[in-house]
Amino acid sequence: MSTQRLSPELRIPLTGRIRLAMSLIVLALPLSGCGTGGLWDKFLAKDDTFVDEPADKLYNQGLFMMNEKKDPKGAVKKFEEVDREHPYSDWARKSLLMSAYASYQAGDFDGCIGSATRYITLHPGSPDAAYAQYLIAASHYDQIPDISRDQGRTEKAIASLEEVIRKYPTSEYATSAKVKLEGARDQLAGKEMDIGRYYMEKRDYTAAINRFKTVVTQYQTTRHVEEALFRLTEAYMAIGIVGEAQTAAAVLGHNFPDSKWYKDAYNLVKTGGVEPEENKGSYISKAFKKLGLG
Questions:
Q1: Segments forming the whole domain that contains residue 237
Q2: What is the total count of domains within the chain?
Q3: What would the DSSP string read from start to end of 80-112?
């Protein structure tokens, strides 16, 4: 196998080539000098045109932008300056959290999630980590779409809210997270109901039952469960599974005796010549027994 012979200049080791290049620069500088000092003086001159602002000053400017100017976007820039110019300082830690909060106030939910996530990563043991986790959850929650659209954001909100409750159960944020969690779960139940009603209109009762079953087994504490039990009564009666229809009506009457949906369910099973009667082995009964509602 033949080898290619390197030219003499390419045989210079890398470090040697760097030294050679620097020596040529040094030799060239005096030749181009002029006036007082020339290029050599400019090369060695210290650039003191940029001076770091004190961290506390930048931080307070951010607070001023937030509280007085009502300019959360401007505040974010100031807090980011602290983090950039004074990394690893206590001011940087505080500014990172305030940047997340200011982003949330500005409606920049992705920016909030990014800053809050970074805060938790860098300062997991901080007393403010609970608040950072709550900001992430709130950012997802505030982006929950209506039930006609994909509910991916709702699922992210639920996961984040559950994280707040699991990690920080005694914090003030856990209480607020529980309220938001019910709202997010109600949204998912509403989505299931919307699809279930669509299948009922198409007389696809099996598909409809699957949707209403999800509401009954997973979202019993939402406002949609009463209608879901009635719709199950309706769908089971339509396909002749009378026992499950009786159970759905009985569970509805036991847990929500004053519900208008129970009156409709009761009348429906009566037209079939039967009474509401609970089958303890039914998934409907078991779902409510699990919560102590049955």
A1: 203-290
A2: 2
A3: HHHHHHSTTSHHHHHHHHHHHHHHHHTT-HHHH
User: Are residues 283 and 246 part of one domain?
Assistant: yes
Does any domain span residue 32? no
Q: Is residue 153 part of a domain?
A: yes
Residue 286: closest CA among 214, 216, 207: 216
- Long-range contacts for 265-274 (Cβ within 8 Å, ≥24 apart)? 265/229, 265/230, 265/233, 265/234, 268/230, 268/233, 268/234, 268/237, 269/233, 269/237, 269/242, 269/245, 272/237, 272/242, 272/245, 274/242, 274/246
- 160 Cβ contact partners less than 8 Å away, ≥ 6 residues apart: 133, 136, 137, 140, 141
Residue 62 forms part of a structural domain: yes
Indicate whether 44 belongs to any domain: no
**Per-residue pLDDT in tens (0 to 9) along the chain, 294 residues:** 443 333 333 333 433 433 333 333 333 344 444 444 554 454 445 455 445 789 999 999 999 999 999 999 999 999 999 989 999 999 999 999 999 999 999 999 999 999 999 999 999 999 999 999 999 999 999 999 999 899 999 999 999 999 999 999 999 999 999 999 999 999 999 999 999 999 999 999 999 999 999 999 999 999 999 999 999 999 999 999 999 999 999 999 999 999 999 999 999 999 999 999 999 999 999 998 876 655
Q: Which of 125, 105, 104, 126 is closest to 115 using CA atoms?
A: 104
Which residue type is seen at 249? A
Is the CB of residue 212 less than 8 Å from the CB of residue 196? Answer: yes
**Residues 16-40, buried b or exposed e (16+ Cβ, 10 A)?**
eeeeeeeeeeeeebeeeeeeeeeee
